[in-house]
Design a protein that fits this description.
Tetrahydropterin Synthase, Chain A, rod-shaped, 5 helices, cell membrane, 161 residues
Length: 161
């Protein structure tokens, strides 16, 4: 054989293992990338599952209120019958409100008796009433206590006559 033929044979014998090594490396990288992509959503699911569930809501149900409403005709027959439940931030606020329930009811009765019948008919009037209830309950019940936090007011009964 000539020197040229021997050189070609050596090149081929070196090229085949080199191509084999490159192919195995490329397949390995591709396989690893696919495995990481498939693994990522499972990791995200585990992270969400490990998070603590939200705290149970704290509700404070109040007895229904019946009050005469203010109106332009001074008609004494305009009456509001309303019941609601307060959503509170924590159990401590609930305990404090329960301890001072007469004060809470007094504030709410004064607020409700100042309402205008024509305003409460609309959805916006009811939303404004919710805002006013939160504001009237916010100040501390007794000097030295923290302000009351009311997260939401949920109507359980609402009759306007």
């Amino acid at each position: 054989m000539s020197d040229n033929a021997k050189a070609k044979g050596r090149k081929r014998s070196i090229m085949i293992p080199l191509l084999l090594v490159l192919t195995v490396a490329a397949c390995s990288v591709a396989g690893y990338a696919v495995w990481r992509m498939m693994k990522k959503p499972a990791d995200a699911t585990e992270t969400t599952a490990k998070q603590e569930p939200p705290a149970a809501p704290v509700f404070f149900a109040l007895d229904t209120f019946t009050v005469n409403l203010v109106n332009a005709d001074n008609d004494p027959d305009r009456v509001l019958y309303v019941g609601f439940t307060l959503r509170l931030p924590d159990e401590e606020t609930r305990r404090r409100m329960n301890d001072y329930l007469p004060e809470i009811r007094s504030r709410l009765l004064l607020l409700l008796s100042r309402q205008n019948a024509s305003m409460l008919v609309s959805e916006q009037g009811k939303q404004d009433l919710i805002t006013q209830i939160k504001q009237v309950l916010a100040p501390p019940l007794v000097k030295g206590q923290p302000p009351q936090g009311v997260n939401d007011v949920l109507f359980t009964a609402f009759i306007l006559r």
